[in-house]
Amino acid sequence: MSTVIRGGTIVTADLTYKADVLIEGGRIAAIGDGLVGDKVLDATGCLVMPGGIDPHTHLEMPFMGTYSADDFDSGTRAALAGGTTMVVDFALPSPGQGLLDALQMWDNKSGRAHCDYSFHMAVTWWGEQVFNEMQAVVDRGITSFKHFMAYKGALMVNDDELFASFRRVGDLGGVALVHAENGDVVAELSARLLAEGNTGPEAHAYSRPPQVEGEATNRAIMVADMAGVPLYVVHVSCEDSHEAIRRARAQGKRVWGEPLIQHLTLDESEYFNADWDHAARRVMSPPFRNRLHQDSLWAGLQSGSLSVVATDHCAFTTQQKRTGIGDFTKIPNGTGGLEDRMPMLWTHGVATGRLTPNEFVAVTSTNIAKILGMYPRKGAVLVGSDADLVVWDPEAEKTITAGSQQSAIDYNVFEGQRVKGLPRHVLTRGHVAVDGGKLDPREGHGEFVAREPRGTVNRALSAWKELTAPRPVERSGIPASGV
Ligand code: DUC
Ligand code: ZN
Ligand code: ZN
Ligand code: ZN
């Protein structure tokens, strides 16, 4: 069974042109004029783009005493409904648990996926077992390793562990990821706020000011430089960390920054809503910031100093959020966004003139496919690439509402927002999962995508290694002590 996408305009990260696309065996078989196939998808007036890749999701993740509410079923349905055809989820070992053990758990959960997926491996503790298993993880096609610099006493790793793990990732040719917040300072500020009687969701934002993120981002960049590993900073929410990333890139370091659609479009005023549920539903780390920080993130996408827009999709129901009534530190951290990332970014980015359609493709798909070593299988419209495609109608409109979303939770942080720009058809390895705006999901269709190590180092470091190679100095006399 072949499918042809007819009459659309192909938009990739670097090209815009009119052509049909023929799909056979789940891959792109031909691109050209007048192609014929068994099934025809009408793309008149639409843009044909690589399907979105969301490199930052937490599906069915054990966290803060509960599990995130969207699993690989509802999560990947949400992804497809919004034009995203691949997710990269975090396999998260609990402290003391082996990496391969954790991977087995994520393998089991992901069997339900409706679209393709891959994993990042989290390094949540350090020891010989972790060091050894990292090789096996890379051999399984997982080449990116995540480190939490916050969540003290749970997921956080200290600087000695960070440096050891970064060096190992560098030696394996992988990419180090960081959640960059100073976990010691967050713990201290949280305790003080609580002791002073600040128990509401707004205190969550006070406990994690931009400086906490800027400090950790700078530290991670320096440690990555000394370890010689490329660094990817997840959920960059503020100018303080963006500035560190800009500077590192200008110095020739391989450092990438990932803002979230939530931080780009929602601000800190959400935490001052009089409705406790409204504010708590938006508690995530890092928290939403003010407009100046938002402007910085948009500028980073425009100039290329920030590379990828993700969601950190980690959804909790209102009931789960209410665990934190009376103590903001117990509100499960996380928000949803998988279904809304593409339409929200199109509406606030492309329709406003901030981003070109080509830049939209770059930051939603192509850049991350390259960073994670899966381009051009993913992130491209090329003969031979997987047929993960979205036929995008820039004129279609809707109002976002929880009542019609795929996510399993009972609200949506973008509730009531009008978006313009929606998927008409979405293909996942050739299967038409959205047909004329209607979802036709296929549980278990998604496959694991194994990735290759990049094998690149931080160039700044290669120089550093040479300059600081141990070189003992010959000395004739050793002064007596006390002199
Ligand atoms: N931040 C969140 O808000 N949720 C999941 C983990 C994280 O870092
Ligand atoms: Zn995080
Ligand atoms: Zn996350
Ligand atoms: Zn199939």
Describe the secondary structure blueprint for this structure:
Blueprint: E1 3-6, E2 9-11, E3 16-18, E4 20-24, E5 27-32, E6 39-42, E7 47-50, E8 52-57, E9 62-63, E10 66-67, H1 72-81, E11 84-91, H2 99-110, E12 116-122, H3 128-139, E13 144-148, H4 159-171, E14 175-179, H5 183-195, H6 202-206, H7 210-227, E15 231-233, H8 239-250, E16 255-257, H9 261-265, H10 276-280, H11 291-303, H12 318-321, H13 341-350, H14 357-371, E17 389-399, E18 418-428, E19 431-435, E20 438-439, H15 459-467
Parallel strand pairs: 1-6, 2-7, 8-11, 11-12, 12-13, 13-14, 14-15, 15-16
Antiparallel strand pairs: 1-4, 2-3, 4-5, 7-17, 9-10, 17-18, 18-19, 19-20
Bound molecules: dihydropyrimidine-2,4(1H,3H)-dione and zinc ion (ZN) (3 copies).
One zinc ion binds next to loops.
What is the tally of helical segments? Answer: 15
Identify low-pLDDT runs: none
Bound molecules: dihydropyrimidine-2,4(1H,3H)-dione, zinc ion
The structural class is alpha/beta
Number of strands: 20
User: Distance between the terminal alpha carbons, to the nearest Å?
Assistant: 88 Å
**Alpha carbon gyration radius:** 23 Å
The general outline is: globular
Q: Report on the biggest sheet.
A: 7 strands, mixed
Overall pLDDT, averaged?
96
How is the largest sheet built, in terms of strand order? 3-2-7-17-18-19-20
Helicity range of the residues? Answer: 25-40%
Keywords: Hydrolase, Metal-binding
Family: Belongs to the metallo-dependent hydrolases superfamily. Hydantoinase/dihydropyrimidinase family.
Cofactor: Zn(2+)
Organism: Paracoccus benzoatiresistens
